[in-house]
Amino acid sequence: MSLDDEDAIWLFERIVRELGKRFDHAEAEAVDLVNRYCQKFTDPDFCRAYDVPVQTMEFFAREESLAMADRVHFYVVLGNEPNESAFVEWEKRLEREKKRLLE
After folding, report:
1. Which domain holds residue 59?
2. Which parts of 1-103 fold into alpha helices (H)?
């Protein structure tokens, strides 16, 4: 799968919107957070230091905007180091909390 520039822009706009909806980030702040996330996780040196694969546009598209907003918040806002297991556990807690609030 290959994304053209228009598809990439559309995806990142959706991630920014999700950051606003899910975590109450203002648009300018969300744009900055997405840019900071991408700087880190597309940098081969950063990824090598944490033994994680370099993320590509294909990865971002596969994860889609909701999961990417969660990733941006977890790694950039909360300042967690790359750890997929910790991210998955955090995401599960987030979903349980959301369900609990809806009851």
Report:
1. 5-102
2. 5-23, 27-41, 44-49, 57-72, 84-102
In whole angstroms, what is the distance from residue 44 CA to residue 41 CA? 8
- 98, with CB counted inside 10 A (0-12, 13-18, 19+), is exposed
| Tens place of pLDDT per residue across the chain (103 aa) | 455 788 889 999 999 999 999 999 999 999 999 999 999 999 999 999 999 999 999 999 999 998 999 999 999 999 999 999 999 999 999 889 888 888 7
Report the domain count for the chain.
1
What is the total residue count of the chain? 103
User: Which conformational region is residue 31 in: left (phi greater than 0), alpha (psi within -120 to 50 degrees), or beta?
Assistant: alpha
Please tell me what DSSP assigns to residue 77: I
CA torsion 10-73-62-50 (nearest 10°) is 130
